[in-house]
Design a protein that fits this description.
Mean pLDDT: 87
CATH architecture of the largest domain: 3-Layer(aba) Sandwich
Structural class: alpha/beta
Number of helices: 21
CATH class of the largest domain: Alpha Beta
Strand order of the largest sheet: 11-12-10-13-14-9-15
Helix content: 25-40%
Largest sheet: 7 strands, parallel
Length: 761
């Protein structure tokens, strides 16, 4: 049982969770210098196996565990305040149990970087020697210079040209950052110091806010009047908040129905009561518009947690939330661990999105853990989506989650008309491109003639997914992964999308020397080129991982919002909740592309993608239109997405899941094994399969053991991957068999790495 984080440890020993792959706690003695100082949730330095580690205190004890004769002492305290609250500690302990993952590694994944000065303090206090270090990323203080002119007259002074240019920039007493002077002078730091020495200006070190979400000024907004459906949802959520009931809701609203406004009003109620709120979004970099709406409503009193933050900025955000100075946190899945003070509301926007699943290290699903965290905090949890996951909607139908519906768009606009184009029958359009049909070309021409904007969606980046030699049949493959190299014509390279291996595009086959090379398949780069050639007067842009890293997501979206872009070609990045008034046409270039994936969720994922991207059209006054191109027009995912009919899709999908016994009618556990040698990976997975099949539940058939088999991507970054799947409708029996696999993994499996994935995607 975890002790209260507000109480200091009076006991002579503490239990510390360490970031090691062992599912146990470690006992350390409390030195006299730290007696009454340490608290549960405090991060401490300890010695472990001849090295120093940063661990977290999770409890206290009056005596040593049985069989232990003595304990090493805690080396030192890393921060004056506990890094975790009691609520967070209890939640993370339960998360570690559920996912069968070592608690120390879970806490390391949830904690911020080590603070600057921790090492210095430990050395000063004699806990660490001059050469001893703690592993892990530490907060780096990134400073810049704030410069301002003084009252001293420099008009008669003998100054160099560079010095004069700097003083000219400071005319009128304005202040600038050092970085702003780099366009005016070389080595501005030397110039500034020289002028300061002469008394002509002054400067100070400041922390530069480089957070892109807070650079632009945002005007405070006036909340629009809610629709009747929105008001019903708001009343239900606020009622649960006022009752301090740990109730869960599914807010199922069609695209454009105003789910965000419901979130805003619920969070506003939280702020009025002095409690905190947490909003999880699929990818923070793709939702600048949403962050802008929150700033317009709440000002800058929010913490946005994302990958672009420096370690110092992350620490500052963490501290501001921990102290209660800031009450609202927004971020992607890792924001689940934000120390929001007195948490009252947890919102998961686009709860169906697969990016909420962490697939490496501590494998968790942020949606499921959001429900758990809300439960431990006594908070309300709201899951929002236009296309809920099958499992979530099933829970709602079973009465485990309360269903709230927004059946119409908040603006009164209608859902766009969808035209299905059967690519088996339609000839190519005037572009001559096989995936730009006549109907899509005509619709695009009409859209541009009317001065409106269009989005073309294809969930595959690059120019061609593979290059094959016609003479010998060889496909250019990645040397480290079992995938074909994708041609990126703009980069002049063949690139692996998994390990980023790349090489120049060759003019001849590396195997036989033939120059008959054929491009197979289509990517966003190829569609962009075809549209540019056919509509030379249109401004065409592309949004995928390639352009996002080069130009920036916000830059591309800003150009679209400002009307500078006529046609945006993109991958699933264009489906993430963008609200662009000028977009009236959406073209889905190849709707059935994801149906061939070896995944029982392939149909669900396809429906969600199609429905979400179709919802980008016609969100303002002008009616929207969607051209949906497919080779499988009769597939349920395609057919129901074209009708905006989630209910019918769900009814058909849930029947199919029940017939084959997949979630929500069964639970899954995957054992993942990888090694540098294929034989080692195969043998280790076979050992795990034998271990599982020896258990009584597996012998009785209550738990199915499927495999071992090579993973869908059998070779990745030079390592061979194998899988073993456990499946059962009985959660208790399934976890019992999984526990035996954990024990077998901890005993060792040779030169391999093995782990379990609970509830895999």
């Amino acid at each position: 049982m975890l002790a209260e984080a507000t109480q200091s440890v009076a006991a002579p020993y503490v239990e510390v969770a360490l970031p090691v792959p062992l599912r146990k706690l470690f006992t350390y003695a409390v030195p006299d210098s730290l007696r009454g100082v340490l608290r549960p949730g405090s991060r401490v330095a300890v010695s472990f196996n001849r090295r120093k580690l940063a661990g977290v205190i999770v409890g206290a004890r009056d005596e040593l565990p049985d069989g232990v004769q003595r304990a090493l002492s805690v080396a030192g305290l890393l921060e004056p305040e506990p890094v975790f609250t009691t609520e967070l500690l209890r939640f993370l302990e339960q998360a570690a149990k559920y996912y069968m993952h070592p608690l120390g590694e879970v806490l390391r994944a949830a904690a911020p970087a080590l603070p600057t000065g921790a090492m210095r303090r430990l050395r000063k206090d004699g806990f660490l020697g001059a050469e001893e270090t703690l592993p892990g990323q530490r907060v780096a203080h990134i400073t810049t210079w704030k410069i301002s002119a003084t009252a001293k007259d420099a008009s008669g002074a003998r100054l160099g040209a560079r010095q004069k240019r700097v003083l000219d920039r400071l005319a009128g007493g304005r202040s600038v950052l050092l970085d702003e002077l780099r366009d005016d002078v070389n080595d501005p730091r030397a110039v500034v110091r020289s002028l300061a020495d002469k008394g002509f200006l002054q400067y100070e070190e400041v922390e530069a806010n480089r957070d892109p979400f807070f650079r632009a000024h945002v005007e405070r907004d006036v909340p629009p009047p809610p629709t009747a459906a929105q008001q019903h949802a708001i009343d239900a959520i606020v009622g649960a908040l006022e009752a301090r009931s740990a109730e869960a809701f599914l807010l199922h609203g069609i695209t454009g129905s105003g789910k965000t406004e419901v979130y805003l009003r619920a969070i506003d109620e939280m702020q009025k009561s002095g409690r905190g709120a947490l909003l999880l979004v699929p990818e923070i970099a793709l939702t600048p518009q949403l962050v802008g709406r929150f700033r317009a409503r709440f000002g800058d009193d929010i913490a946005v947690l994302h990958s672009a933050l420096t370690a110092r900025q992350r620490e500052d955000a963490w501290r501001s939330l921990r102290s209660g100075r800031v009450k609202v946190a927004i971020g992607a899945r890792s924001a689940l661990f934000a120390p929001v003070s007195d948490l009252g509301l947890v919102v998961v926007d686009e709860e169906h999105d697969p990016s909420f699943k962490q697939d490496e290290g501590f494998r968790y699903h942020a949606r499921d853990m959001a429900l758990l965290r809300a439960q431990y905090a006594g908070a309300v949890c709201v899951l929002g989506s236009a296309t809920p996951s099958v499992e979530t909607y099933y829970r709602a139908n079973q009465g485990k989650i309360r269903l709230l519906s927004l059946p119409s768009r908040a603006t009164g606009a209608t859902l766009p008309e969808v035209e299905i184009v059967d690519l088996r029958r339609h000839r190519v359009g005037p572009t001559g491109h096989m995936l730009l049909s006549g109907p899509l070309h005509s619709a695009l021409a009409e859209c541009l003639d009317a001065g409106q904007q269009a989005i073309l969606f294809l969930n595959r980046r690059g120019f061609s997914p593979s290059v094959r030699c016609v003479a010998c049949g060889m496909v250019a493959e990645c040397p480290a992964c079992s995938v074909a190299l994708t041609e990126h014509r703009g980069q002049g390279a063949l690139r692996c999308h998994y390990c980023d291996f790349h090489r120049p595009v060759a003019s001849a086959c590396a195997s036989c020397g033939s120059d008959e090379l054929k491009r197979l398949g289509v990517g966003t780069e190829q569609i962009e080129q075809a549209v540019k050639e056919c509509f030379p007067n249109a401004c065409v842009a592309r949004l995928d991982r390639d352009t996002a890293s080069a130009e920036g997501v916000e830059s591309v979206l800003d150009r679209l919002r400002n009307g500078e872009v006529d046609v945006l070609v993109g991958t699933q990045m264009v489906t993430k909740g963008h609200d662009i008034a000028g977009v009236t046409l959406v073209g889905i270039v190849l709707a059935d592309q994801s149906l061939a994936f070896p995944d029982f969720r392939a149909s669900e994922r396809t429906f969600q993608l199609l429905a979400q991207v179709a919802g980008r059209a016609g969100r303002a006054d002008a009616p929207g239109k969607v051209i949906l191109q497919t080779y499988q027009p009769d597939h349920p995912a395609v057919r129901f997405a074209a009708r905006h009919d989630f209910e019918s899709f769900y009814s058909e999908e849930i029947r199919a899941r029940e017939e084959v016994g997949y979630p929500p009618f069964a639970r899954l556990v995957t054992a993942r094994v990888h090694s540098g040698g294929e034989g080692d990976a195969r043998r280790a997975t076979q050992l795990l399969a034998e271990t599982a099949r020896q258990q009584q539940a597996a012998k009785d058939g209550a738990v199915q053991v499927l495999g071992p088999a090579p993973a869908p991507l059998s070779r990745l970054r030079g390592r061979y991957h194998y899988r073993l799947l456990l499946k059962s409708p009985d959660r208790k029996l399934l976890r019992n068999v999984a526990a035996h696999l954990v024990a077998r993994i901890e005993r060792g499996l040779g030169p391999t790495h093995a782990s379990l994935d609970i509830d895999p995607l």
